[in-house]
Amino acid sequence: MNENTKARLNGLLLSAAHKIGLFLAMTVICLPGLWIVLASFRPTVEIMAKPPVWIPEDLSFDAYVAMFSGVGQGGIPVIEYFRNSLIISVTSTAIALAIGMAGGYAFARFRFKAKSSIFLGLMLTRTVPGIALSLPLFFVYSKLGIIDTHFGLIMAYVALNVPFTIWLIDGFFRQVPKDLAEAAQIDGCTRWQAFWQVEFPLAGPGIASAGIFAFLTSWNEFALASQLTRSVNSKTLPVGLLDYTAEFTIDWRGMCALAVIMIIPALVLTFIVQKHLVSGLTSGAVKG
Question: Locate the ABC transmembrane type-1 domain: which residues (predicted)?
Fold first, then answer.
């Protein structure tokens, strides 16, 4: 066996090992989601079976039929929960992106006093878990009278997402050469026009990445939402999962069905912006 054949064989073996490793990793990552989807179609007997029933024997749409047939008739108010989640997530993401773009651009382009300290302080706020903030926020919101409102939850999620969006967008603006904006200004553009027409399009992948992460954080958040919401007027889908729990029983199939409903918008949004998301993760987070 000559050297070229050995090198080709080693390359094939490494490629095969790499693909097998990726397949195993994806299996581990996707297995919980697949299990939730299957559990939403299974009878409760199979879900609670010990040892687990890996291959379903009886599948039905009963959980989904029961979920939507009870809308407006005293059942789980899925439509209201979905509406609340959509309003809160989209609004908080838009506000966080607007602040993140302004903050990220300022940190990337301007020099000002205590710049590093302010940036570090923003990043440190992101390390505080949401559950640790729930009790102080509850007392503050009670005094302000914004418990059980969209506004209160939106403000909490904006504060939660702004540090990350600033960090990610700052990395992208640092990679956009200043010379491009300066050249645009020489050609007659104002500073604002140079930003929107030159710098903003080049930083688009980073902004899309920050947006999808901010949206998913707001869409899936439970700890703060469970403390700051009380009624159907403001409860989100994660909090709505608790409607399937009783004092002594849990409707696992119904809970999994609602979880599937939660997953679908996130999957659709991720699929739509996946091109920007991949490019954003591979290039924008590395600071220049």
Answer: 82-273
